[in-house]
Design brief:
Blueprint (H helix, E strand, L loop, with lengths): L2 H4 L2 E2 L5 E5 L4 E6 L2 E6 L4 E6 L2 E6 L7 H23 L2 E8 L4 E5 L2 E5 L6 E4 L5 E5 L7 E6 L2 H14 L9 E4 L10 H5 L1
Antiparallel strand pairs: 1-6, 2-3, 3-4, 5-6, 7-12, 7-13, 8-9, 9-10, 11-12
Protein name: Large ribosomal subunit protein uL6
Family: Belongs to the universal ribosomal protein uL6 family.
Subunit structure: Part of the 50S ribosomal subunit.
């Protein structure tokens, strides 16, 4: 069995978890929002006394390795949903580079990243965005959502506009991320 899958999930106050046995769908509702997740039929879901547990159904036709993988996977997905609707997730990105700018009007974000044109990105309504540009400091984008997977996808999309490069250290980085720098050709020639 999966050691992650065996851990119970404690449901905090103000969060309700419902499971529909006919469709195998878990819905989690809390102060930050509502999320749904379909669960494989080879996993048994139980919600008792404010604790959620997952067990492998030994009678299902799915092979053993796949069942063990599903056991930990669905436990982690539901745990991320419970944490998301109760506390939420935050990511902060930093634009490192001369002339890099970012601004937003609602959920429409405009990037100026050294290309000949500005880049516009319309974020889904589930994601809250805030941009900060101060003099002599790198511009910052703060993203917040209850859906961890969606937030990671948005961050990956934003980073793809200007990936961090190792020679000058420019690009879009997570705040606090350190880029391993490389020396250029001239340093190697000496």
């Amino acid at each position: 069995m999966s050691r992650i899958g065996k851990l119970p999930i404690i449901v905090p106050a103000g969060v309700s978890v419902n499971f529909d046995k006919s469709t195998n769908v878990v819905s989690v509702k809390g102060p930050k929002g509502e999320l749904v997740q379909k669960i494989d039929p080879s996993i048994k879901f139980t919600n008792q006394d404010g604790q959620i547990t997952f067990e492998v159904d030994e009678n299902s036709p799915v092979n053993v390795k796949q069942k063990q993988a599903f056991h930990g996977l669905y436990r982690s997905l539901v745990n991320n949903m419970v944490v998301g609707v109760s506390e939420g997730y935050k990511k902060t990105l930093e634009l490192v580079g001369v002339g890099y700018r970012v601004s937003n009007q609602g959920n429409l974000v405009e990037f100026s990243l050294g290309y000949t044109h500005p880049i516009f990105l319309q974020l889904p309504k589930e994601v809250k965005v805030e941009t900060k540009s101060e003099r002599n400091q790198n511009p910052i984008i703060m993203l917040e959502s209850c859906d961890k997977a969606l937030l990671g996808l948005i961050c990956a999309k934003i980073r793809s506009f200007r990936k961090p490069e190792p020679y000058k250290g420019k690009g879009i980085l997570f705040q606090g991320e350190v880029i391993r720098r490389k020396s250029g050709k001239t340093a190697a020639a000496k």
